[in-house]
Design goal:
The chain is of the alpha/beta class. It has one domain: Rossmann fold. The chain has five helices and five strands. Helix 2 runs parallel beside helix 3. The radius of gyration is 13 Å and the shape is globular.
Length: 121
């Protein structure tokens, strides 16, 4: 069962996405900021990370860079709100595999996860 780390400071989004992914058979770990995301990435070894770009303590871009420095083949997908195109571009250039615009839509998030993990829908 693939493990997914959801890093977002919005509890509602984490809970909603975690519930959706659990129903689909994924194991889920949650972080409410970029610092915790980096820590959990190191201890939990998730198969994929869904990370908000804008978070307190350590933003998603800084956390992405730290995760990729530790594990260059890490699979990180950025979560962003409309209007954050510049930050999304920076994240993709830094090594993020894809991005999803919030609010998260079931078909889009599952499509991205399956594509990146190489799992047939």
């Amino acid at each position: 069962m693939p493990k997914i780390l959801i890093a977002d400071d919005a509890e509602f989004l984490r809970v909603q996405t975690a519930r959706l992914l659990a129903i689909e058979g994924f194991s889920v770990v949650e972080a409410d900021n970029g610092g915790k995301a980096v820590e959990l990435f190191q201890t939990e070894k998730p198969d994929i990370v869904l990370m908000d770009i804008s978070m307190p303590e350590k933003d998603g871009l800084a956390a992405l860079k730290e995760i990729l420095a530790a594990q260059p083949d890490a699979k990180v997908v950025m979560l962003s709100s409309l209007g954050q195109e510049t930050l999304v571009l920076q994240a993709i250039r830094a090594g993020a595999k894809d991005f999803v615009i919030k609010p998260v839509e079931k078909e889009r998030i599952l499509g991205v996860i399956h594509k990146i993990l190489g799992i047939a829908l």
